[in-house]
């Protein structure tokens, strides 16, 4: 995990995003335990309440579950939850901006499709 303490993005959101990314990329598999709030707090010198707030976002999204007295574990459908979340954000984050810039550059739809196809083949 890496945190940017100079970023305008709150640390608790960075915690949530880091855990989500680690699950999505397979660092933590379904059923595996993720680092505890205390472990993350101590390793990265982050307030435990801040780490907990980030972890609770991941719990609320159904990606990890808390087991009292044992720890937090990746849920069976966590990767699919993340995939669906990212798909729903894909248009707003990438496609909309991409097409807006393409229009500013007077690129035709055919030009844009050709660029996408070229990128897929790279």
Automatic annotation (TrEMBL):
Keyword Transcription attached: yes
InterPro entries: Tscrpt_reg_HTH_GntR, WH-like_DNA-bd_sf, WH_DNA-bd_sf
Database matches in Pfam families: GntR
UniProt keyword Cell inner membrane present: no
Molecular function as annotated in GO: DNA binding; DNA-binding transcription factor activity
Domain HTH gntR-type: from-to ranges: 9-77
Record keywords, A-Z: DNA-binding, Transcription, Transcription regulation
Matching SUPFAM superfamilies: Winged helix' DNA-binding domain (SSF46785)
PANTHER family attached to this UniProt entry: GNTR-FAMILY TRANSCRIPTIONAL REGULATOR, HTH-TYPE TRANSCRIPTIONAL REPRESSOR YTRA
Name of the protein described by the UniProt record: Transcriptional regulator
Species per Swiss-Prot/TrEMBL record: Levilactobacillus namurensis DSM 19117
């Amino acid at each position: 995990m890496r945190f940017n303490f100079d970023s305008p993005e709150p640390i608790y959101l960075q915690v949530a995003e880091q855990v989500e990314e680690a699950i999505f990329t397979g660092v933590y598999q379904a059923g595996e335990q993720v680092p505890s709030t205390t472990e993350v707090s101590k390793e990265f010198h982050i307030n435990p309440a801040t780490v907990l707030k980030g972890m609770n976002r991941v719990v609320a999204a159904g990606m990890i579950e808390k087991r009292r007295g044992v720890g937090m574990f990746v849920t069976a459908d966590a990767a699919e939850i993340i995939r669906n979340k990212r798909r729903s954000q894909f248009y707003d984050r990438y496609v909309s901006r991409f097409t807006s810039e393409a229009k500013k550059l007077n690129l035709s739809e055919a030009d844009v499709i050709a660029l996408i196809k070229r990128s897929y083949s790279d």
